[in-house]
């Protein structure tokens, strides 16, 4: 699913009640590595990095979002995203992930979110490695929804 990068900031300005945004969802096994230091992410100089020194200290699922969704070292570091995936049978699966890093965009301005393989497997019922990438939707929700526990 593709959309103009111009519309993304407008949708995010609506705050926590924003409409779901179409995204490409990938996995990156680095997001499962609890030893990665926050100082080595694009959120290094934020309050998130001050509170949580490494991925293992963060009490929830982690995500890395495209620059279209977060920007670099912004208040979007530590933002909470509800990600929803609809499988081939039409069954919806959703979870929350905390944004801890940002990366450059994809061609044509496609927004994306990367999650750890463990999170991708949770969302796709164990098919993360097989699927590699899925079309999904995401919208920003209140940060407290992500910081309650580690799944």
- Strand adjacency order, main sheet: 1-5-2-4-3-6
**What is the fourth-level CATH superfamily?**
RlpA-like domain
Q: What is the C-alpha radius of gyration, as a whole number of Å?
A: 14 Å
| Number of helical stretches of at least 4 residues | 4
Along the chain, the helix and strand elements come as HEHEEEEHHE
Based on Cα principal axes, name the global outline. Answer: globular
What is the percent of helical residues? 10-25%
Q: How many domain modules?
A: 1
Mean pLDDT, all residues? 80
The number of strands is: 6
The N- and C-terminal alpha carbons lie at a distance of: 28 Å
Largest beta sheet, briefly?
6 strands, mixed, barrel
Category by helix and strand content:
alpha/beta
Tell me the name of the CATH class.
Mainly Beta
CATH architecture: Beta Barrel
Beta-strand proportion: 25-35%
Spans of at least 5 consecutive residues with low confidence: 1-15
Question: Care to describe what's here?
Answer:
The protein is an alpha/beta fold and 151 residues long. It has a single domain, classed as Barwin-like endoglucanases, CATH 2.40.40.10. Helix content is 15%, strand content 29%. The protein contains four helices and six strands; from the N terminus they run αβαββββααβ. The protein is globular. 34% of the residues are buried. The N terminus is likely disordered. Keywords: Secreted, Signal. It is found in: Secreted. Belongs to the cerato-platanin family. It comes from Hohenbuehelia grisea. This is Cerato-platanin.
């Amino acid at each position: 699913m593709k959309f103009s990068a111009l519309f993304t900031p407008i949708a995010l300005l609506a705050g926590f009640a924003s409409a779901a945004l179409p995204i490409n969802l990938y996995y990156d096994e680095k997001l499962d590595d609890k030893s990665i230091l926050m100082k080595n992410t694009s959120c290094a100089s934020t309050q998130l990095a001050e509170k949580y020194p490494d991925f293992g200290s963060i009490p929830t699922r982690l995500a890395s979002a495209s620059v279209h969704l977060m920007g670099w070292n912004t208040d979007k570091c530590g933002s909470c995203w509800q990600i929803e995936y609809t499988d081939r049978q039409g069954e919806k699966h959703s979870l929350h992930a905390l944004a801890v890093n940002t990366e450059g965009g994809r061609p044509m301005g496609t927004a994306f979110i990367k999650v750890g393989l463990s999170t991708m497997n949770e969302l796709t019922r164990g098919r993360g490695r097989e699927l590699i990438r899925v079309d999904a939707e995401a919208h920003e929700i209140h940060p407290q929804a992500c910081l309650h526990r580690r799944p």
